[in-house]
């Protein structure tokens, strides 16, 4: 009895220690006291519960779950259901956590809160929304703001990943978390400008909230704002402002945020901006997407997008085996998804295996008819790239749900025209028009009353008629033109085309139809020609022809006389012109073509260079004076003149005379540069 009493006294002291440490938040010390209590009584339920709580508070979730699983007889699901589910949730065993919560006999408020978190992680957003609404409706405590934030996060996820139009929850956006979630919901709807304004408001609220705490530094504020700035950069990227987005992304990375999910998303977005450029930077960024724990931070669609971009990056960096491996893995995870097979086909095309790529796409189209349209469009593009336009047309025409679309009809007609296959092009028009006729018959339920055709239907008929007329198929265009005129009898242009077509086939019919044309009086344009010619924008104004009075006639005659009296200006003569000397009749001919040209004297000056001292000459200055030497007369008479000039004449012809005071031209001599220095004195 004394030993039992001593043990009870020791246990009481230990419980006091546990209580005191728990109130102080010292769970490590509390755990030591709990372990001592369990040494006294290993099956103490309260002590085991306290141990599990201490381990959870210290972050030892795996050890806490081990204690629960070891003492299942004592710690039943009714006693420890929340702690077990929470440990499983924190260890990312989400499915197990859901089973634990659902197996609990009593759904406490704590379990309902955890249940909402588990549903969010499982991406069961409809059930999650209902759970949080129930919690907000039936709870009244200090955590109401957090529940509303979680509710807005669910709505944002629905808008982003499921493209569900969010309902107005009537939440007052008083915190930056609520503003941020509202912005995410707007991004999911494509309202980017409104979303940017919400994010700017969220940034302002965040700064105000954190600046009130004196212990928070500017670095802490920037770290908290990182996720808001990341979403801003994403909006910029969607708006095409890639340079601004890239700059903001890199600023966030420099801050080195601890959120691996945020870093992975930013790195992925930078890779999408780089595409096939700057692959070295992309290979560095892709490492951030492989960080530990990323798979638990992002949604399935985010993780899938990252894997797609990894496969594309492998293709751009010529890692063919890696690209095939990644795309095959993606295809096994999502067999119905288009991107994996498109990436494989693109890789085959880079390897010049176009036929194999087309075969791969054809197999996928056969296995997944729902996605066949997009695959066949890609196949047609590959055929066009190979130059097989006719085969591409056959593939496009096999897409039944797109045969009647104006874009498809236009593409097929253009391609057939390029191949000069007019019959096939007309057949495409005919099939599309028939589809609309059948559609109209179905919608009218066989009603015989005249129904106007849709604008698309009429547009196809008109394009078909114009195409046939352009290629000389007027007989075939008649039915289309008649249909158009029937729809709009006031359309003069269509009537004119119809008359033109009938004029070659049935002239009598053309005459009958021509009576429906409006008269020339109704079609004449009432335009004031004079006002039009005299307008500000007229480039040519016709002068009015009017009768001239006697005074005007005299003025006109007088002006004419003045004009007749005008003489040409005398040409300028040379300054040294001598009227007594007969000009040289060959002065207008080039020197080489004149009869007295003797050619240039060669070698005379060359022989004289370098003789004597600098500045001296070998001949007298009198010998070089041209004024003292008589010009030698030509030996033969000049053509075109009856008599030759006298041999004793020493006058230089005017064309050869130099003006007085004109400096003699000197020939420029090229100076060779010396090696290693500048030429000169």
Automatic annotation (TrEMBL):
It holds the Pfam family SRP72. TPR repeats lie at residues 226-259. Residues 610-644 have a biased composition (Low complexity). Residues 543-681 are annotated as: Disordered. GO terms for biological process: SRP-dependent cotranslational protein targeting to membrane. SMART domains: TPR (SM00028). Residues 94-149 form a coiled coil. Keywords: Coiled coil, Cytoplasm, Endoplasmic reticulum, Repeat, Ribonucleoprotein, Signal recognition particle, TPR repeat. It comes from the Eukaryota. GO terms for cellular component: endoplasmic reticulum; signal recognition particle, endoplasmic reticulum targeting. The keyword Repeat applies. The keyword Coiled coil applies. PROSITE patterns: TPR. Residues 543-599 form the Signal recognition particle SRP72 subunit RNA-binding domain. Transmembrane segments: none annotated. Gene3D superfamilies: Tetratricopeptide repeat domain. Residues 563-573, 665-681 have a biased composition (Basic residues). Residues 575-596 have a biased composition (Basic and acidic residues). GO terms for molecular function: 7S RNA binding; ribosome binding. PANTHER family: SIGNAL RECOGNITION PARTICLE 72, SIGNAL RECOGNITION PARTICLE SUBUNIT SRP72. Belongs to the SRP72 family. This is Signal recognition particle subunit SRP72.
